[in-house]
From TrEMBL:
The keyword DNA-binding applies. Belongs to the LysR transcriptional regulatory family. InterPro entries: LysR_HTH_N, LysR_subst-bd, WH-like_DNA-bd_sf, WH_DNA-bd_sf. PROSITE patterns: HTH_LYSR (PS50931). Keywords: DNA-binding, Transcription, Transcription regulation. The keyword Metal-binding does not apply. PANTHER family: LYSR SUBSTRATE-BINDING (PTHR30346:SF29), TRANSCRIPTIONAL DUAL REGULATOR HCAR-RELATED (PTHR30346). Residues 1-58 form the HTH lysR-type domain. This is LysR family transcriptional regulator. SUPFAM superfamilies: Periplasmic binding protein-like II, Winged helix' DNA-binding domain.
Protein backbone atom coordinates (compact mmCIF):
# COMPACT_ATOMS: atom_id res chain seq x y z
CA UNK A 1 0.00 0.00 0.00
CA UNK A 2 1.47 3.32 -1.10
CA UNK A 3 0.69 6.81 0.14
CA UNK A 4 -0.25 8.17 -3.26
CA UNK A 5 -2.81 5.37 -3.68
CA UNK A 6 -4.56 6.57 -0.53
CA UNK A 7 -4.35 10.15 -1.78
CA UNK A 8 -5.95 9.19 -5.10
CA UNK A 9 -8.67 7.16 -3.37
CA UNK A 10 -9.58 10.05 -1.04
CA UNK A 11 -9.69 12.51 -3.95
CA UNK A 12 -12.02 10.28 -5.98
CA UNK A 13 -14.22 9.65 -2.94
CA UNK A 14 -14.55 13.38 -2.29
CA UNK A 15 -15.00 14.43 -5.91
CA UNK A 16 -17.27 11.46 -6.81
CA UNK A 17 -15.53 11.51 -10.20
CA UNK A 18 -12.18 10.21 -11.52
CA UNK A 19 -11.66 13.08 -13.97
CA UNK A 20 -12.24 15.79 -11.38
CA UNK A 21 -10.00 13.94 -8.91
CA UNK A 22 -7.22 13.81 -11.50
CA UNK A 23 -7.60 17.55 -12.22
CA UNK A 24 -7.45 18.29 -8.49
CA UNK A 25 -4.28 16.21 -8.13
CA UNK A 26 -2.73 17.48 -11.39
CA UNK A 27 -2.16 13.97 -12.71
CA UNK A 28 -3.49 11.95 -15.65
CA UNK A 29 -6.90 10.32 -15.12
CA UNK A 30 -5.79 6.81 -16.24
CA UNK A 31 -3.08 6.91 -13.59
CA UNK A 32 -5.62 7.65 -10.87
CA UNK A 33 -7.86 4.80 -12.02
CA UNK A 34 -4.95 2.36 -12.19
CA UNK A 35 -3.60 3.20 -8.74
CA UNK A 36 -7.02 2.94 -7.10
CA UNK A 37 -7.49 -0.47 -8.79
CA UNK A 38 -4.11 -1.57 -7.40
CA UNK A 39 -5.19 -0.51 -3.93
CA UNK A 40 -8.45 -2.46 -4.27
CA UNK A 41 -6.59 -5.57 -5.43
CA UNK A 42 -4.22 -5.32 -2.48
CA UNK A 43 -7.14 -5.01 -0.05
CA UNK A 44 -9.14 -7.68 -1.84
CA UNK A 45 -12.27 -5.52 -1.91
CA UNK A 46 -13.80 -2.89 -4.17
CA UNK A 47 -13.78 0.53 -2.53
CA UNK A 48 -15.72 2.38 -5.23
CA UNK A 49 -18.94 1.63 -7.07
CA UNK A 50 -18.39 2.72 -10.68
CA UNK A 51 -21.73 1.51 -12.08
CA UNK A 52 -23.57 4.85 -11.98
CA UNK A 53 -22.98 8.23 -13.59
CA UNK A 54 -21.06 9.32 -10.51
CA UNK A 55 -18.65 7.25 -8.46
CA UNK A 56 -19.92 6.14 -5.05
CA UNK A 57 -18.25 4.53 -2.09
CA UNK A 58 -18.99 0.90 -1.41
CA UNK A 59 -19.65 -0.21 2.15
CA UNK A 60 -15.98 -1.17 2.46
CA UNK A 61 -14.96 2.16 0.94
CA UNK A 62 -17.02 4.02 3.54
CA UNK A 63 -15.19 2.12 6.27
CA UNK A 64 -11.74 2.70 4.74
CA UNK A 65 -12.13 6.42 3.97
CA UNK A 66 -11.64 7.78 7.55
CA UNK A 67 -8.45 5.73 7.95
CA UNK A 68 -7.11 6.90 4.59
CA UNK A 69 -7.76 10.51 5.58
CA UNK A 70 -6.10 9.93 8.95
CA UNK A 71 -3.01 8.45 7.25
CA UNK A 72 -2.71 11.48 4.97
CA UNK A 73 -3.24 13.80 7.93
CA UNK A 74 -0.46 12.01 9.82
CA UNK A 75 1.92 12.58 6.92
CA UNK A 76 0.94 16.25 6.86
CA UNK A 77 1.65 16.33 10.58
CA UNK A 78 5.15 14.97 10.01
CA UNK A 79 5.81 17.64 7.39
CA UNK A 80 4.35 20.32 9.66
CA UNK A 81 6.62 19.28 12.54
CA UNK A 82 9.66 19.53 10.27
CA UNK A 83 8.51 22.90 8.91
CA UNK A 84 8.02 24.27 12.41
CA UNK A 85 11.48 23.14 13.48
CA UNK A 86 13.25 24.44 10.37
CA UNK A 87 11.20 27.60 10.00
CA UNK A 88 10.39 26.70 6.40
CA UNK A 89 6.73 26.81 5.40
CA UNK A 90 5.86 25.33 2.05
CA UNK A 91 2.79 23.93 0.38
CA UNK A 92 -0.41 25.14 -1.20
CA UNK A 93 -3.42 27.04 0.11
CA UNK A 94 -6.79 27.13 -1.70
CA UNK A 95 -9.02 30.05 -0.72
CA UNK A 96 -12.57 30.83 -1.86
CA UNK A 97 -14.73 33.91 -1.60
CA UNK A 98 -18.23 35.13 -2.34
CA UNK A 99 -18.62 37.87 -4.94
CA UNK A 100 -18.99 40.75 -2.48
CA UNK A 101 -17.06 40.95 0.77
CA UNK A 102 -15.78 43.58 3.19
CA UNK A 103 -12.69 41.83 4.51
CA UNK A 104 -9.38 43.05 3.08
CA UNK A 105 -8.69 39.75 1.34
CA UNK A 106 -6.04 41.12 -1.07
CA UNK A 107 -4.12 42.56 1.89
CA UNK A 108 -4.34 39.26 3.76
CA UNK A 109 -3.09 37.22 0.81
CA UNK A 110 -0.34 39.71 -0.03
CA UNK A 111 0.94 39.78 3.56
CA UNK A 112 0.85 35.99 3.73
CA UNK A 113 2.74 35.72 0.44
CA UNK A 114 5.39 38.14 1.70
CA UNK A 115 5.83 36.05 4.85
CA UNK A 116 5.78 32.68 3.05
CA UNK A 117 6.82 33.17 -0.60
CA UNK A 118 7.25 29.42 -1.18
CA UNK A 119 3.55 28.75 -0.58
CA UNK A 120 1.33 28.56 -3.66
CA UNK A 121 -1.95 30.47 -3.11
CA UNK A 122 -5.05 30.00 -5.27
CA UNK A 123 -8.27 32.05 -5.08
CA UNK A 124 -11.64 31.14 -6.56
CA UNK A 125 -15.05 32.82 -6.48
CA UNK A 126 -18.41 31.05 -6.06
CA UNK A 127 -21.65 31.27 -4.11
CA UNK A 128 -21.80 30.32 -0.44
CA UNK A 129 -23.30 26.87 -0.97
CA UNK A 130 -20.51 25.92 -3.39
CA UNK A 131 -17.84 27.31 -1.08
CA UNK A 132 -19.21 25.43 1.92
CA UNK A 133 -19.14 22.21 -0.10
CA UNK A 134 -15.56 22.98 -1.13
CA UNK A 135 -14.53 23.41 2.50
CA UNK A 136 -16.20 20.19 3.60
CA UNK A 137 -14.71 18.11 0.79
CA UNK A 138 -11.23 19.57 1.16
CA UNK A 139 -11.07 21.39 -2.19
CA UNK A 140 -10.75 24.64 -0.22
CA UNK A 141 -8.75 25.35 2.92
CA UNK A 142 -10.59 28.56 3.85
CA UNK A 143 -13.32 30.76 2.40
CA UNK A 144 -15.30 33.93 2.97
CA UNK A 145 -18.98 32.93 2.96
CA UNK A 146 -22.36 34.40 3.85
CA UNK A 147 -24.36 32.62 6.57
CA UNK A 148 -27.32 33.18 8.86
CA UNK A 149 -27.32 33.02 12.63
CA UNK A 150 -25.91 29.50 12.81
CA UNK A 151 -22.58 27.96 11.86
CA UNK A 152 -22.65 25.43 8.99
CA UNK A 153 -22.02 21.89 10.22
CA UNK A 154 -18.41 20.80 10.12
CA UNK A 155 -16.99 24.32 9.90
CA UNK A 156 -15.50 26.88 12.24
CA UNK A 157 -15.87 30.60 11.61
CA UNK A 158 -14.60 34.06 12.47
CA UNK A 159 -17.18 36.81 11.88
CA UNK A 160 -16.19 39.43 9.31
CA UNK A 161 -19.42 41.43 9.24
CA UNK A 162 -22.93 41.23 10.69
CA UNK A 163 -25.59 43.55 9.32
CA UNK A 164 -29.29 43.68 8.44
CA UNK A 165 -30.68 42.44 5.16
CA UNK A 166 -32.86 45.20 3.67
CA UNK A 167 -35.01 46.02 0.68
CA UNK A 168 -33.94 48.94 -1.51
CA UNK A 169 -36.14 50.74 -4.01
CA UNK A 170 -36.03 53.74 -6.34
CA UNK A 171 -37.17 57.08 -4.81
CA UNK A 172 -40.32 57.00 -6.97
CA UNK A 173 -41.27 53.46 -5.91
CA UNK A 174 -44.54 53.19 -4.01
CA UNK A 175 -42.78 51.69 -0.98
CA UNK A 176 -40.13 54.42 -0.82
CA UNK A 177 -42.13 56.45 1.74
CA UNK A 178 -42.02 53.57 4.24
CA UNK A 179 -38.65 53.32 6.04
CA UNK A 180 -39.78 50.09 7.74
CA UNK A 181 -41.86 47.33 6.13
CA UNK A 182 -42.87 43.84 7.16
CA UNK A 183 -41.67 40.89 5.13
CA UNK A 184 -45.29 40.25 4.15
CA UNK A 185 -45.31 43.62 2.36
CA UNK A 186 -43.01 42.04 -0.22
CA UNK A 187 -45.46 39.20 -0.92
CA UNK A 188 -46.34 39.20 -4.62
CA UNK A 189 -44.07 42.16 -5.43
CA UNK A 190 -41.24 41.87 -7.98
CA UNK A 191 -37.95 41.38 -6.16
CA UNK A 192 -34.35 41.68 -7.33
CA UNK A 193 -32.01 39.19 -5.71
CA UNK A 194 -28.77 37.29 -5.80
CA UNK A 195 -29.09 33.72 -7.21
CA UNK A 196 -29.96 30.63 -5.19
CA UNK A 197 -27.07 29.31 -3.15
CA UNK A 198 -25.94 32.76 -2.05
CA UNK A 199 -26.22 33.77 1.60
CA UNK A 200 -28.63 36.69 1.13
CA UNK A 201 -30.90 34.65 -1.13
CA UNK A 202 -30.96 31.82 1.40
CA UNK A 203 -31.93 34.25 4.18
CA UNK A 204 -34.77 35.61 1.98
CA UNK A 205 -36.04 32.19 0.89
CA UNK A 206 -36.00 30.83 4.46
CA UNK A 207 -37.84 33.86 5.86
CA UNK A 208 -40.48 33.83 3.12
CA UNK A 209 -41.03 30.07 3.53
CA UNK A 210 -41.56 30.59 7.26
CA UNK A 211 -44.10 33.32 6.43
CA UNK A 212 -45.97 30.99 4.06
CA UNK A 213 -45.08 32.33 0.63
CA UNK A 214 -42.41 32.14 -2.04
CA UNK A 215 -40.67 35.35 -3.11
CA UNK A 216 -41.44 36.65 -6.59
CA UNK A 217 -37.93 36.98 -8.01
CA UNK A 218 -38.18 39.11 -11.15
CA UNK A 219 -34.44 39.64 -11.67
CA UNK A 220 -31.35 37.75 -10.56
CA UNK A 221 -27.73 38.85 -10.76
CA UNK A 222 -24.55 37.71 -9.02
CA UNK A 223 -23.34 41.27 -8.34
CA UNK A 224 -24.95 43.44 -5.61
CA UNK A 225 -24.01 46.47 -7.70
CA UNK A 226 -26.15 45.20 -10.58
CA UNK A 227 -29.04 44.56 -8.18
CA UNK A 228 -28.80 48.15 -6.96
CA UNK A 229 -28.77 49.50 -10.51
CA UNK A 230 -31.86 47.50 -11.45
CA UNK A 231 -33.71 48.73 -8.36
CA UNK A 232 -32.66 52.34 -9.02
CA UNK A 233 -34.34 52.08 -12.41
CA UNK A 234 -37.64 51.11 -10.84
CA UNK A 235 -37.66 47.42 -11.72
CA UNK A 236 -38.47 46.19 -8.22
CA UNK A 237 -37.17 45.95 -4.66
CA UNK A 238 -33.58 44.75 -4.35
CA UNK A 239 -32.59 42.56 -1.40
CA UNK A 240 -29.22 43.87 -0.24
CA UNK A 241 -26.90 44.16 2.75
CA UNK A 242 -27.92 47.19 4.81
CA UNK A 243 -24.61 49.08 4.61
CA UNK A 244 -24.35 48.47 0.86
CA UNK A 245 -27.83 49.94 0.28
CA UNK A 246 -27.32 52.86 2.67
CA UNK A 247 -24.16 53.89 0.81
CA UNK A 248 -26.32 54.50 -2.29
CA UNK A 249 -28.75 56.92 -0.67
CA UNK A 250 -28.84 59.27 -3.65
CA UNK A 251 -30.38 56.66 -5.92
CA UNK A 252 -32.04 54.22 -3.52
CA UNK A 253 -34.31 54.30 -0.49
CA UNK A 254 -33.46 51.71 2.14
CA UNK A 255 -36.39 49.83 3.72
CA UNK A 256 -35.76 47.99 6.97
CA UNK A 257 -37.52 44.62 6.99
CA UNK A 258 -39.15 44.02 10.38
CA UNK A 259 -40.91 41.80 11.29
CA UNK A 260 -39.10 39.54 10.98
CA UNK A 261 -35.74 41.26 11.24
CA UNK A 262 -33.42 39.70 8.67
CA UNK A 263 -29.68 39.64 9.26
CA UNK A 264 -26.77 38.23 7.32
CA UNK A 265 -23.26 37.46 8.45
CA UNK A 266 -20.14 37.40 6.37
CA UNK A 267 -17.63 35.01 7.91
CA UNK A 268 -14.15 33.61 7.34
CA UNK A 269 -14.64 29.83 7.50
CA UNK A 270 -12.49 26.71 7.57
CA UNK A 271 -12.98 22.99 8.11
CA UNK A 272 -13.35 22.11 11.80
CA UNK A 273 -11.73 18.69 11.39
CA UNK A 274 -9.80 16.73 8.83
CA UNK A 275 -6.43 17.20 7.12
CA UNK A 276 -5.25 20.81 7.01
CA UNK A 277 -1.68 21.48 5.95
CA UNK A 278 0.71 23.78 7.78
CA UNK A 279 0.39 26.49 5.14
CA UNK A 280 -3.40 26.54 5.52
CA UNK A 281 -3.13 26.63 9.30
CA UNK A 282 -0.75 29.57 9.09
CA UNK A 283 -3.11 31.48 6.79
CA UNK A 284 -6.11 30.79 9.04
CA UNK A 285 -4.19 31.99 12.10
CA UNK A 286 -3.17 35.17 10.29
CA UNK A 287 -6.73 35.84 9.11
CA UNK A 288 -8.19 35.33 12.59
CA UNK A 289 -5.61 37.66 14.12
CA UNK A 290 -6.34 40.29 11.46
CA UNK A 291 -10.10 40.10 12.02
CA UNK A 292 -9.83 40.24 15.80
CA UNK A 293 -7.51 43.24 15.61
CA UNK A 294 -9.99 45.32 13.59
CA UNK A 295 -11.70 48.15 15.49
CA UNK A 296 -15.28 47.28 16.39
CA UNK A 297 -18.07 49.59 15.27
Amino acid sequence: MELHQLQYFVAVAEERNFTRAAERLHVAQPGVSAQVRRLERELGQELLDRSGRSVRLTEVGEAVLPYARAALAAVDGVRYAVDELTGLLRGRVAVGTVTSHSVELPDLLAEFHDAHPAVEITLSEANSDQLIDGLRTGRLDAAIISVGSGTPAGLEIEVVDDQPVVAAVAPAHELAVHPVISLDTLRGRPLISLPRGTGLRTRLDEACAAAGFAPDIAFEASSPEVLAQLAARGLGAAILPGAFAAARGEELRTLTIDPPALRGRLVFAWRAAGPTGPAARALIERARAMLRARPRA
